[in-house]
Amino acid sequence: MRSGIHPTSRPVVFRDRASGFQLLTRSTIDTRQTVEWEDGATYPVVDVEISSASHPFYTGTSRVLDTAGRVERFERRYGRTAPPRH
User: Fold this and answer.
1) For residue 16, which of 45, 41, 42, 44 has the smallest C-alpha distance?
2) In this predicted model, what pLDDT tens digit does every residue of 30-51 receive, in sequence order?
3) H/E/C letters for each residue in the chain?
4) Is the pTM here over 0.85, yes or no?
5) pLDDT beneath 50, residues of the chain
6) Quick count: other Cβ atoms within 10 Å of Cβ 74?
């Protein structure tokens, strides 16, 4: 690899704002905020909106939408504007 063209990889903490879950991993992202980790060292921190700790798919709280029922409810409320296709 050529030297001087690749970003430097360093330990970074990713913190989920919704659940408080934190993950220490390596990244090239640049941030000015820092946080003290469990080992007593200070690492840069990146706040994320959602992670596997708070995403409904991973937590098991996801809902299945009934799209057919929603279409029927829309048609009942507003009527059918286009003629039926044959």
Assistant:
1) 45
2) 999 999 999 999 999 999 888 8
3) CCCCCCCCCEEEEEEECCCCCEEEEEECCCCCCEEECCCCCEEEEEEECCCCCCCHHHHCCCCCCCHHHHHHHHHHHHCCCCCCCC
4) no
5) none
6) 11
